[in-house]
Amino acid sequence: MGHTIAVILSGGRSSRMGRDKAGLPLGRETFLDRLTTGLTPLFDRVYVSVDRPGRYPGRRELPDLRPGQGPLAGLEAAFRSTAAEAVFLAAVDLPFAAPALAAKVLERAGEGDACVIRRRDGKAEPLFALYRRSCLGPLTGCLDQGRRAVMALLDRVDCRWLAEEELPEFDLERMLWNVNTGQEYRRAVAVEEEG
What is the 3-state secondary structure (H, E, C) of 11-45? Predict the structure, then answer.
């Protein structure tokens, strides 16, 4: 597949959580540590997408070229700041995301511009997905037009949709659980403690 990196989207202002989600502890690691540890064996490099440099000292940071413009800006910075042929995006607020699921996305990606999981209810999971460099032109176009939603990009590229039915061995409800609020975080801690 060529030079492939992982980019962990460190989140925006975390307004619903009230504090930086990347640093939230879960078990013995933070959200950011869990994802970094899990993804490192699968990719050439793991970066953290940040709105400003120096947010996570000691990490490989990829500062947004368009701060405040959301995940597409993080993906644009990944392609413009590295030589990667493909970028695996992972949102930091998916603390139960399994490396095996990321590996499956890579394995099933095919030749398309992107590979994204689609749930049974039709909902897409674009923030735990693979994007190839061929997405750069369309995504820059989206950002230039003020279209910040990742789905706007997926409408413009050849996307390989990976149906939930193709992933029977994975508990997607848990692995793609987006922890956004204090209440959800407390529930995530309880789930982690239950094992």
Answer: CCCCCCCCCCHHHCEECCEEHHHHHHHHHHHHCCE
Tens of pLDDT, residues 67-109: 889 999 999 999 999 999 999 999 999 999 999 999 999 999 9
* Assigned token pair, 90: 């992972």
Tally of domains in the chain:
1
Domain CATH for 73 = 3.90.550.10
What lies within 8 Å, CB to CB, of 24 at 6+ separation is: 17, 30, 31, 95, 179, 185
Task: Determine which helix (DSSP H) or strand (DSSP E) holds 139, and give its type and residue range.
Answer: helix 136-144
pLDDT tens column, 7-49:
999 866 665 666 788 989 999 999 999 999 999 999 999 999 9
Q: Which domain holds residue 33?
A: 4-194
Phi, psi of 132 (to 5 degrees): -95, 160
CB count within 10 Å of CB 106 equals 16
Go through the chain and tell me how many residues it has.
Answer: 195
Instruction: For the full predicted model, state whether its pTM sits above 0.90.
Output: yes
Q: Phi, psi at residue 80, to the nearest 5°?
A: -80, -25
**Distance separating alpha carbons of residues 99 and 93, to the nearest angstrom:** 15
